[in-house]
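quick one: NAP bound model?
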Amino acid sequence: MKIDRSVCIVTGASSGIGAATARQLAGLGARVVLAARRTDRLEALARELPGAVAVTTDVTVDGEFEHLVAETVDRFGGVDVLVNNAGQGLHVPLEQLDPVDLRAVFELNVVAPLRGMQAVLPSMRSTGGGAVVNVSSATSLRVFPGLGGYSATKAALNMLSQVARIELADAGVTVSVVYPSVTATEFHQHLRAGRILAGARTIPLDPPELVGQAIMLAIRTGEAHVLVSDPPRPIVPGDAEGWGALLARQSSEAGRSPGDTPSGERTAATRLTEEPRG
Ligand SMILES: NC(=O)c1ccc[n+]([C@@H]2O[C@H](COP(=O)([O-])OP(=O)(O)OC[C@H]3O[C@@H](n4cnc5c(N)ncnc54)[C@H](OP(=O)(O)O)[C@@H]3O)[C@@H](O)[C@H]2O)c1
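yep, here:
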């Protein structure tokens, strides 16, 4: 999909990955619709980005995604891209995991992206297609003690996305999943419950712009799965070749010191290898 002149909805655009993604999309000529609950932040960003509009939206509330899409269609005539990015962490061991918290995070990380896909489909079908990018997490690619609740929501999102990709192919809609690693945003200050893993606290964080680059790659190419690494790259989770390549990269980089990598920084895959040590 061509980004220039496209109409793109970004949820969770009031901070972190969503705001960085909105900036990159606008920089590439897209007309961006910024969605989240904090109106002041959305409006400040909309003033900064040519052609952007802010629509205050709680994606977990019935009817609000439909309202967001209706506003977008009224303003721009359709929707080409949906970036389902709004999300929250839940970082507690299963023994302490409160089902109330798990249900709430499921609503945001799984049910809301489903609502989003359903809400944009009529417009995308009528214009012959579009791109959906669902922001998952690299924690859904491996098993991390302490992250069961959060990882379960992202693993559910992965499956919904893969099914949607097949079901919507005939409509010309690509559905992609992007897998960020630990990223420098407000995410760990806004966990629904729990705290960042001790090991993750001491390691270099990816900038949100790197996740934005992975999202641009997903929109442009329609790749099914994009891992946030430097540079971002397509993967095939579960596939012997793609998954084997990811694991091989992790194990070869795990033995290196940070200065050993060409950029002098550890990569997302290396950090993933290190996280469970905390
Ligand atoms: N940071 C990481 O280490 C990391 C790693 C892997 C994956 N991710 C994923 O990346 C995505 C973005 O997170 P981030 O790192 O950018 O964290 P963040 O800075 O905390 O951003 C989260 C965004 O979600 C929005 N949001 C939360 N609840 C919402 C609701 N009910 N309705 C609408 N918007 C809502 C927030 O805006 P308002 O509060 O204004 O509504 C905010 O803009 C999430 O899906 C997260 O799971 C993050």
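The chain has a mean pLDDT of 88.
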